[in-house]
Amino acid sequence: MLSYGGKTRRAHRTMYELMHGRIRPNALHVCHSCDNRKCVNPNHLWLGTIQENLADMRRKGRGTKPPRTKPKARRNQVQTAVSIPALPR
Q1: Locate the HNH nuclease domain: which residues (predicted)?
Q2: Predicted confidence pLDDT, tens digits, the chain (89 residues)
């Protein structure tokens, strides 16, 4: 975030506007081709809709959760019957 023109704004959006001109408010988002939200390199910034940004993310294989390797223990989970050895008397 930075202050520019008397307003607090996102740095990447401000950089895009300085290099390419004003963006209509609420029209498009400034997206990152490098997928680094902190990046302000004008060569990495492009205008797009939320849908276009999500499609770009999916195309790059980003934003997907890795498969769980170990199942989580759940409360009140029903256990299957097992053979329990008798306790010595």
Answers
A1: 10-54
A2: 877 678 888 888 888 999 999 888 788 999 999 888 889 999 999 999 999 998 998 898 887 666 666 666 666 655 555 555 666 66
What does the alpha-carbon distance between residue 28 and residue 31 come to, in Å, rounded to a whole number? 9
Residue 12: how many other CB atoms lie within 10 Å: 21
Q: What is the largest CA-CA distance in the chain?
A: 86
Could you state, in order of their start, the residue ranges of all structural domains in the chain? 2-59
How far, CA to CA in Å, does 29 sit from each of 21, 34, 59, 68?
Answer: 14, 15, 18, 32
Is residue 2 within 8 A of residue 12, CB to CB? The reply is no
What DSSP state is assigned to residue 87? Answer: P
Phi/psi region, residue 54 (left: phi>0; alpha: psi -120 to 50; beta: rest), is alpha
